[in-house]
Amino acid sequence: MHKRFNELQKNYGQEYNFFVYLKEQEFFLNCSPISIPYSDYLELKEQVIANVEAGRDVYEKIYSKWMPVEIGGRYYITNIVPYHDSYMISLVSADHLIRPLRELNLGENGFVSLVDDRGQVLTSPISNNGERLGEERQSSFFPNLFKGGTTVNGEFTNASFHVKLVIQFGTFEKIMIAQLLILLLAVIITCSLGFILLYFRNKVLRPIKSFSYNLAFWTEEGESLAFEGSKIIELERANKQFMNLVDQIKKFKIDLYERELEKQRIQLDYMKLQINPHFFLNCLTNIYSMAQMQLYREIEQMALSTSRYFRYIFQNDGDFVKLRDEIEHVRIYLDIQKHRYPDALAYRIEERDLLGDARIPPLVLQTFVENAVKYAVSRVSQVQIELAVRLRQEAGEERLVIRIADTGPGFPPEILECLQNGSPLDQSAGNHIGIMNTLQRLASLYSGQAAVSFSNREDGGACVILSLPASAGTNRSVAV
């Protein structure tokens, strides 16, 4: 339990405190390093023991629910979970809990706070500009905020308090004004186009139509005009050809516009892959843990690998990179993951020196290797990840064949069926973005000449095989 609480504190931060209380043994102890003063610790201990000795009404009100408590003149959020005669307690400062919300731009006079069910403010009164408000100014200043700004209340599940945001001339108001201006501009443009079309119809189309009607059906003697020997037939044919040309141009513009939108969407997804704050935070957490254990050599290696990893991501802005650089980036990524899972991950990379100068799109191998680490690595057994690069002749053309395999559980049947059939994966929950983005990038950069196959190995694990033209990227933009 002590080890588990330490892992929780490493993941969530030093500000989260964990305690355990054994009623029969009258034993109360912190299960991880505490960040509160010792006097607050003693007062917390007295409150927990008093709540345990209280009646059933108190029990049903506070246990297994997040409740605010006042300790040493400050408010904390605590959760007491009973198990027979044992009680596990989690404690975090109310100010720390809403620290990310205070980083939002709520305007110069905007603020955010936690409020209990009685309307009592649980956090320090600090405005968005960082100024601490005193009691006198708070009583006269806050009502003005509610009149001039916007108030947003958010409830928490299984808690007896809620969060209140007061937005005063901040980002949200600016977004609203921008949306109104855009809407007004769209209305003006629509009205202008309507007037232009009406003018064009009355001044151009209607006279031409009347003139064409008179020429097509009547001669000077009032007889129908012969189309075969008339120049009007040629004019009509030219008009039809012109209209067909206009229709083709419209279709071409629509297709080009849709392609441009798709390209921008793919580039946006690619930028999302480039910035991975969750992975970066995990690296910092591992370095912090190594520092606590005084593993200085491991800290140096981890910090160097992390810096090289992100330097490669942010410096590569071209369509193609050298294969040896991409493989080196994958090796750095796997080394970082080995620091996280020292006994659960092993890898092997097979490459030939002659293939190092070949060009491939950046972060393609990274995407599939990262997917293997995410879904295959566990703490139950060690997982082996293999990366092999070969050169193969297919239909008189040299192609790079890259195989990425692991010994994990493999692709789920429904996911594997979609990948083999070329069906899009569900990305509504934020999953599978990397794989779908990579497949679209390969199709765009290689003009449909790239092939990717997915399968599950007979002895367990997933396998991805990429077949790419070896000569691609020589005449394209290459990242340095």
UniProtKB/TrEMBL annotation:
Record protein name field: Sensor histidine kinase
Alphabetically, the GO molecular function entries are:
protein histidine kinase activity
Q: State if Nucleotide-binding is listed as a keyword.
A: yes
Q: Where are the transmembrane segments?
A: 180-200
All copies of the Histidine kinase domain together span 364-472
Q: What organism is listed for this UniProt entry?
A: Paenibacillus timonensis
Q: Which UniProt keywords apply?
A: ATP-binding, Coiled coil, Kinase, Membrane, Nucleotide-binding, Transferase, Transmembrane, Transmembrane helix, Two-component regulatory system
| Pfam families cross-referenced by the UniProt entry | HATPase_c, His_kinase
| Top EC class for this record | transferase
Supply the EC number(s): 2.7.13.3
Q: Which residues, by range, are in coiled-coil regions? A: 235-274
Q: Does the keyword Coiled coil apply?
A: yes
